[in-house]
Design brief:
Blueprint lengths: L11 H14 L9 E3 L7 E2 L5 E10 L11 H17 L4 E11 L5 H17 L3 E9 L5 E10 L15 E5 L4 H18 L11 H8 L6 H9 L5 E4 L4 H12 L2 E5 L7 H9 L4 H7 L6 E5 L4 H4 L5 E8 L5 E4 L5 E3 L11
Parallel strand pairs: 4-5, 9-12
Antiparallel strand pairs: 1-2, 3-6, 4-6, 7-10, 7-11, 8-10, 9-11, 12-13
Helix pairs in contact: 1-3, 2-3, 4-5
The chain binds adenosine-5'-diphosphate and magnesium ion.
Length: about 350
């Protein structure tokens, strides 16, 4: 952790702003053919030829979006990139570049920023994107990171939130709810640590949940998968605020209703087990947890045979006419209205 007294602490003031930028960015190479000019001039230059360019940005603030007492800076850098790439993939586009802007107080030594950038650089390598610029400034209140992601797509491949039709099927990639539970486990351990700093937590059984919280992945693979299966989603969104709130976005934008089937929602076995331990309702966690960074999309019914055998994709419901409402069909076969809770605390 950053307060560890054994790690070297080089003051960033020693380097100066330009020294710091050079130091942090010296290892970024350019690999995308759409990048004409990256870091080092007044602006980057990109060339997307006949493709449409997609762009998205995200701002993360210490104490609001992350807590450095249990989030390692390397993971934070990685996750800050992932949350942006996920938005590009949700347009059915290919991510190609990011810019990274940071505001740091002198509480952070150079070594802390190196960790942050190690995470950013790892994500850039794994997802094959160029870091093409950013901004560096000081802060008096804590760490802030703003990442902008850029991507490209053929116009006919673009998928918006508003394209769902009345009888389309609702599909989700992967499983949901684990990232929220990972946060619950980390917060519980933080409290234990505050009471007894010598406690040695055994978090093995929660490793999937903690990984989903601290080191999420974005679904870069889904565009290629759907392409292979010859399925084009009619609408799509990524799951950042929770399944429930994203379903409501798709329905509202597309002017349709939905029947979401509780029994179909994909849950990892550790989610079910940990919900029991925390006496949380697993459906509530799946619906309102958030930060899953899975993709939620709709497809035409005729495409069902193409996706039904795929272990990465689960049909969780079907769209209806708008008047039928946005409904959750429970295991008891009752239909209740879905509520968007976003990040509000989950109540039983
Ligand atoms: P300017 O004064 O024109 O804003 P800067 O000196 O801030 O330029 O930046 C110099 C170069 O370094 C630019 O290419 C900029 O995009 C890049 N850059 C600045 N800060 C960062 C950062 N934190 N991460 C990545 N690139 C950065
Ligand atoms: Mg600048």
């Amino acid at each position: 952790m950053i307060e560890d007294k054994n790690t070297p602490r080089t003051s960033i003031a020693e380097l100066g702003e330009f020294g710091l930028i050079d130091h942090l960015t010296k290892n970024f190479n350019i690999s995308q053919e759409t990048t004409i000019k990256g870091i080092g001039d007044d602006a980057a230059v990109l060339d997307f030829k006949d493709k449409k360019c997609v762009i998205t940005t995200d701002l993360l603030i210490e104490g609001i979006h992350f807590d450095l007492s249990y989030v390692p800076l390397k993971h934070l850098g990685y996750k800050a990139v992932i949350v942006n790439l996920s938005d590009i993939y949700a347009m059915n586009a290919t991510a190609s570049q990011i810019t990274v802007s940071i505001a740091v107080s002198n509480r952070f030594p150079l070594e802390a920023l190196e960790e942050l950038y190690a995470g950013i650089s790892t994500a850039a390598k794994i997802y094959d994107i160029d870091v093409i610029g950013g901004d560096t400034t000081s802060s008096t209140t804590g760490l802030m990171i703003s990442i902008t992601a850029i991507g490209y797509v053929d116009e006919e491949e673009l998928v918006y939130r508003d394209g769902a039709g009345e009888s389309d099927l609702l599909v989700v990639s992967g499983d949901v709810g684990a990232a929220y539970l990972g946060l619950q486990v980390l917060e519980r351990e933080k409290k234990v640590y505050e009471v007894n700093p010598n406690s040695q937590p055994d978090l093995d059984q929660y490793s999937y949940l903690i990984e989903r919280q601290l080191k999420p992945e974005a679904r870069k693979d889904i565009k290629a998968l759907l392409h292979t299966l010859e399925v084009k989603p009619t609408s799509m969104i990524d799951i950042s605020d929770g399944l429930s709130s994203e379903i409501i976005h798709l329905c509202t934008r597309s002017k349709v209703g939905v029947n979401l089937y509780e029994e179909k929602i994909p849950l990892d076995p550790t989610v079910i087990a940990t919900c029991e331990e925390f006496t949380l309702n697993s459906t509530t966690v799946a619906l309102n947890g958030g930060e899953d960074y899975e993709l939620l999309f709709t497809i035409k019914q005729k495409d069902f045979p193409k996706i039904k055998a795929n272990p990465n994709l689960t049909v969780i419901g079907h769209m209806t006419d708008e008047k039928s409402g946005i409904g959750l069909v429970t295991r008891a076969n009752e239909k209740i209205e879905l509520q968007a809770q976003g990040w509000n605390p989950i109540k039983e």
